[in-house]
Write a structure and sequence with these properties.
It contains 7 helices and 8 strands, in the order αββββαβααβαββαα. By secondary structure, it is α+β, with helices and mostly antiparallel strands. The protein has a single domain, classed as Class II aldolase/adducin N-terminal domain (L-fuculose-1-phosphate Aldolase). The protein has an 8-stranded mixed sheet, with helices on both faces. Helix 4 packs across helix 7. The longest helix is centred in the last third of the chain and has 24 residues. Bound molecules: zinc ion.
Length: 215
């Protein structure tokens, strides 16, 4: 993907996140690798639904801003921690998606064994410990889990998901938030009936066979 294509894709995903109410006002941030030294990211204090390609910033792998007329997102260290520890990852999406963040503020890992798609696509959604946003300590809270999953909760904060493209990174946040909404609604309707061990084993087999689309 060229830099021009990456800028357009980031703006389009920002619009979809805002339209789905996954990021209110200026919440959330996105990034993607441009090459071995440069990362394209969203600016700070800007609505993700209103970004234009020229609003985006380019930083190096230490978070120093290389270009862009607006200041980079204050959460870039979180994104860079993912890139540093996952060479396969090309894009990161962070949001305060409300239904998933409901689990994050309760510091509850998202329950699995309830719906097949969640077990196959999400598999394991742990909660990283709390720290003050914007700091290196905060970015490092994901390290115990970053190799084990592509989507996780940040305690009392939100969600971070990542993958081989912006579309795939965003996809996990959208799937997670829709699933969390169903679980919350189900708990209000009655007692959620969990899948049994055999049914879950069949889903694990399906997950191991499933090849995600590359874009
Ligand atoms: Zn945040």
């Amino acid at each position: 993907m060229s830099e021009t294509e990456a800028r357009l894709a980031m703006c389009e995903i920002g619009q979809r996140m805002y339209a789905r109410q996954l990021c209110a006002a200026n919440d959330g941030n996105l990034s993607c690798r441009l090459d071995a030294q440069r990362v394209l990211c969203s600016p700070t204090l800007m609505c993700k639904g209103l970004m234009s390609p020229e609003d985006l910033c380019i930083v190096d792998l230490e978070g120093n801003q290389l270009s862009g007329c607006r200041p980079r997102t204050s959460e870039i260290l979180l994104h860079l921690a993912v890139y540093r520890h996952r060479p396969d990852v090309r894009a990161v999406v962070h949001s305060h998606a409300p239904h998933a963040t409901a689990f994050a503020i309760c510091r509850q890992a998202v329950p699995m064994g309830i719906m097949p798609e969640a077990d196959v696509f999400l598999h394991f959604v742990p909660v990283a410990p709390y720290d003050r946003p914007g700091t290196q300590q905060f970015a490092d809270t994901i390290l115990p889990y970053v190799q084990q999953t592509d989507v996780l909760l940040l305690a009392n904060h939100g969600v971070v998901s990542y993958g081989p493209s912006l579309e795939r990174a965003y996809w996990l946040t959208e799937i997670l938030d829709a699933y969390c909404r169903i679980v919350i609604l189900g708990r209000q309707v009655g007692s959620i009936m969990e899948l049994d061990a055999e049914q879950r084993a069949a889903l694990r087999a399906l997950r191991s066979e499933w090849q995600p689309p590359s874009s």
